[in-house]
Amino acid sequence: MSCAMRRVMVCGLAMSLGGAALGQVAPPPPGPPAPRPVYERPAEAPRVAPGSRMPGQQGGINPREIEHEPLERYDADGRLIPLTKVSDVAAFDNNPLLDAASRRRAEAAAAARQREMELIAIAHSDAAFEVDNGIMDELSILDRDRIEMIRTLIQPLTTPSPYGAYMIEAGALSPQQAAMNDYIAQVYRTRQLEQARADSLAAGEEMPAEAILRVALKQQLEETMFAYRHLLRLAGGLGEEMLAEVENPPTGAVEAAKAAGAAGDSEARLEAVRRVLRELPLDQHAAVLSVAQRSQADN
Prior knowledge:
The protein has helices spanning 3-18, 87-90, 100-123, 125-132, 144-154, 163-169, 175-202, 208-220, 222-238, 251-262, 266-279, 285-298. The chain is mainly α. It is built from twelve helices and no strands. The chain is globular. The model is unreliable at 1-59 (pLDDT under 50). Helix content is 56%, strand content 0%.
């Protein structure tokens, strides 16, 4: 196969497998990331360009023409700073169309949706474990069998409906508010793809589309994997109690559970619980996650 034909096939695969992660409103075209100044929120109210419409008027809006603070922030080296929330939830903070009442409704709906994602993570804890332990990094874009295996594995972890559509259906956001929120989150996700491409090129890799595909597939699992790791942290806070529904847990799992309970911070607890799960058969992971989920209802 010629190099030109290979590049065509690689790009086609990346677009077909990763395109769903880009959402409904097309953000700006990709390009390599560059250092950007810290954004300062404008003192005046968000402006709407001529010809666009605000909620309450007939018709839609053009999110690109409404001033807002972007989600993306860059460190001193010009690298995108990761978010600590699901991108769609983080976008609430920067959505100029949300008032206090709609913000409260959106946050309540987001909490309900996360509980749904937690149930998905528990039901498919084996797949979530594989993703959390880096199976995406083993993806080779020229190995079609491997790609199909990974796609089959992660399919149950993909979110059942787009975030904006869920918010509208729940009565939390208007279509205009949801469109603005989607756009803010989608632009951030596009910046992630840009950085993956730039990193791949900087590393001298022949096919940056492979790095882009890995990130795009991870984006499709963003909500479920956030919920999964949330449950792991909750389990860590329980210490040995996380193993309450595991019959005859191995010594290694018990010791790791004790370490998790004694850990001084969230990330240390997360790593300790990962050690617990590596000591357990995959079919016992759901028991640990279920105990963790019920613990938050008890508090």
